[in-house]
Amino acid sequence: MAVEIIAYDWLALWIIVLAVALNAFFAVMWYDETSKIRVQKQDLVTVISHEFPMVSFVVPAHNQEQQISSCVKSLFNCASNYRGPSEIIIIDDGSTDATYESAWSAIDMLQKELPQIHVRILKHMTHLGREEAAKTGANKAMGEYIALLDATTPCDCISLNQLIDTMSTTQKTVVSHEVRLPSYKDEPAVTRSLLLYPADVLRRMLHEEQTVKSTKETKF
After folding, report:
1. 126-152, pLDDT tens digit by residue?
2. Pairing, β 190-198 against β 175-181
3. How many Cβ atoms from other residues are within 10 Å of residue 150's Cβ?
4. What is the pLDDT of residue 4?
5. Under a CB-based contact definition with an 8 Å cutoff, are residues 173 and 81 in contact?
6. Residue 75 in contact with residue 61, Cβ under 8 Å?
């Protein structure tokens, strides 16, 4: 009887040891798989953030009540066709008409269809000029790149994907895309440009321009 009890105890002990060993084996296997999945996800995030950088549209506007709605619409179309994240920043540079209200009205309507596109409107209480408006927008921009354009520049036909690819492959500090507006009555056709900069490059340029301007103004 004693021998049988001892035999049962040894059998139970071996079963416990085997169970512990199997649990440890499967735990190691699960950890390895989890680590691989985590690394793959991190690699995927790295690739996405590298190939699809965030772009901020910066649009100075002054007394553009009639044009701002079509501008906002073209910005939404351009942003929605971009393969990465984007934002739209409109700077009302001290307009004396209803530019600000017209812009918000267009944004409210379009964001019902495209709620993923983030939009902000900044307002100068006085007219400071395009350079200062661009500086205000650039300082608030969250994107790695900044697309700078006027409120009269339609960007429906602009492929932001191609501009980003061009800048990435050529390592240029600025890439431009010209849009030729149709002539109206007897007026000649007008060309407008969208300029794409790395955000830090544009901020540095605007700061240097302001420094040079301030230096000239202080000379006697």
Report:
1. 999 999 999 999 999 999 999 999 998
2. antiparallel
3. 16
4. 56
5. no
6. no
Query: What whole-number distance in Å separates Cα of residue 78 and Cα of residue 95?
Result: 25
Consecutive H or E run containing 202:
helix 199-218
Residue 70 region by backbone torsions, left for phi larger than 0, else alpha for psi between -120 and 50, else beta: alpha
The whole-angstrom separation of Cα 128 and Cα 144 is 26
**C-alpha to C-alpha distance for 106 and 112, rounded to whole angstroms:** 10
**Which run of H or E residues covers position 65?**
none
Location of structure tokens 């990465």: 84
Tell me the C-alpha distance between 146 and 124, whole Å: 20
| Residue ranges in the chain assigned as alpha helix (H) | 2-51, 68-80, 99-111, 130-140, 160-170, 199-218
C-alpha span between 122 and 54 (Å, rounded)? 20
The string of pLDDT tens digits covering residues 149-208 is: 999 888 877 788 999 999 888 888 899 888 766 555 566 666 778 899 999 999 999 988
- Model pTM score: 0.71
Residue 147 DSSP SS3: strand
Q: How many residues does the chain have?
A: 220
Q: Positive or negative, the Cα torsion across 161, 165, 168, 170?
A: negative
